[in-house]
Amino acid sequence: MQASPSSPTYPIRIAVMGGGNFGLAMGTLCARQGYPTTILVRDEEIAQTINSEHRHPRYMQGIELPTGLRATSDPNECLPDATYIIHAVPCQYSRGFLESVKDFIPAQTPILSVSKGIETSSMGFMADLIKDVLGEDRPLAFLSGPSFAREIVEGLGATAVVIASEDLDLARDLAALISDGRFKCFTSTDVIGVEIGGAVKNVIALGAGMCEGLGLGTNAMSGLVTRGCNEMRRLGLTFGARPSTIAGLSGVGDTFGTCFGPLSRNRKFGYRLGKGETMEEILASTSEVAEGVDTALAVVRLIEKECKGYRLDLKYPILFGIARILEGKSTPLEGLELLMNMPMQMENFDEGRLGKERRRDKSDFEDKTDE
Ligand SMILES: NC(=O)c1ccc[n+]([C@@H]2O[C@H](COP(=O)([O-])OP(=O)(O)OC[C@H]3O[C@@H](n4cnc5c(N)ncnc54)[C@H](O)[C@@H]3O)[C@@H](O)[C@H]2O)c1
Ligand SMILES: O=P(O)(O)OC[C@H](O)CO
Fold first, then answer.
1. Is the C-beta atom of 38 inside 6 A of ligand 2?
2. Are residue 39 and residue 164 in the same domain, yes or no?
3. pTM of the model
4. Which of 144, 148, 267, 286 has the most ligand 2 atoms within 8 A of CB, as the residue to mutate?
5. Number of domains forming the structure of the chain
6. Which one of the ligands is nearest to 249 CA?
7. How many Cα atoms are found within 13 Å in the side-chain-facing hemisphere of 135?
8. Domain boundary among 189, 209, 224
9. Closest Cα to atom 4, ligand 1: which residue?
10. Contact 298, 118 (CB under 8 A)
11. What does the DSSP assignment read for 62-80?
12. What string of DSSP letters covers 159-180?
């Protein structure tokens, strides 16, 4: 690890909250690098299996976990003395989970959130949610990018992600801590840009899955993903994100991975909708969390609340269209027909406005060496 002047002194201890697929992947990365790492799981029996057999009984079938990776169901055993805490609980469960453990987390312990989504009840991103529960002054960082858990634990090839924080030193410390020869972390200060990409790409992946389920072909898939990224950029602009972040790993990069790769749960969910299954049928037959489903409903409400102008459904036709399908108001095929019959428009009708925003946002250029 390359230590920065603000780096904490040894021994560094890591706690991971959430022992699902990505919690296990992050825990594995940290333990492989020799940091004492403990995963907080909900079920003591699962903790015992991880500790004695170095495997998770439900997730990551066939994967042997590092012996240095411990598990517990007792927050008091791992949170109070952790140097860093990684938060890997799905967005919609995060508030309840954090409420239940907040008394065990010291005031200054930095939290690295790896969760992607918009909370339906508050329409807030993970940064808003965590600050709401743990306080405005909490040091926070956010990891996002194309990073399927299974590929990480299998040590396949290479993964590149971005860690964003308002405190660039914290982002750098965490990037140095987690990066290894096969997992590369870039850094950024554009927290909202990174969060918007991570949340919206899951919604676009539902649409990509529908496209595939309907058997629409490569032209349709490429068109949908590109136009989806355009809506991601438009939303990012509204919230002050940098266009370069949206074009980066956590935006377009993660959208590619999730829409075109075979592992995405969101894409699989969309595929089944495209094949004609109902939401109820899919939800009843899977325990996998597809974060995009709740995020799709939250994002359109967020757009309606925060974006000016009328007929926002025409500015964000893909996001609104996917939400309508999830609400049972249209079928995937009707959604497609609506998109294809939209009024004629310039490909990038908001480009002029984008240019002005860019000129105003000097910070876009200031740390351009930093992802
Ligand atoms: N799986 C991936 O490849 C991947 C990659 C990058 C980011 N992420 C993000 O990481 C976050 C976690 O995803 P995951 O893949 O680990 O999810 P998962 O479904 O595999 O696991 C979720 C974990 O959260 C725990 N949890 C705690 N409180 C819960 C509650 N009230 N209800 C349900 N579960 C609860 C579960 O026990 C489980 O251990 C998500 O926001 C996801 O978008 C996942
Ligand atoms: O399986 P998904 O669709 O939740 O995607 C997992 C990760 O976010 C990919 O980067």
1. no
2. yes
3. 0.93
4. 148
5. 2
6. 2
7. 11
8. 189
9. 22
10. yes
11. TPPPPTTEEEES-HHHHST
12. EEEEEE-SSHHHHHHHHHHH-B
Q: Is the CB of 258 under 6 A from ligand 2?
A: yes
Residue 206: give its domain's CATH number: 1.10.1040.10
Q: Are 37 and 106 in a shared domain?
A: yes
Structure tokens at 180: 């290894």
**46 and 123 belong to one structural domain:** yes
Under the banding of pLDDT at 50, 70 and 90, the label for residue 371 is very low
Residue entry with tokens 């890997």? 88
CA 159, 165, 167, 168 torsion-angle sign: positive
At 101-146, the pLDDT tens digits run 999 999 999 999 999 999 999 999 999 999 999 999 999 999 999 9
pLDDT tens column, 51-74: 999 999 999 999 999 999 999 999
Q: What is the pLDDT of residue 5?
A: 43
Q: What would the pLDDT profile of 319-330 be if each residue is shown by its tens digit?
A: 999 999 999 999
DSSP 20: S
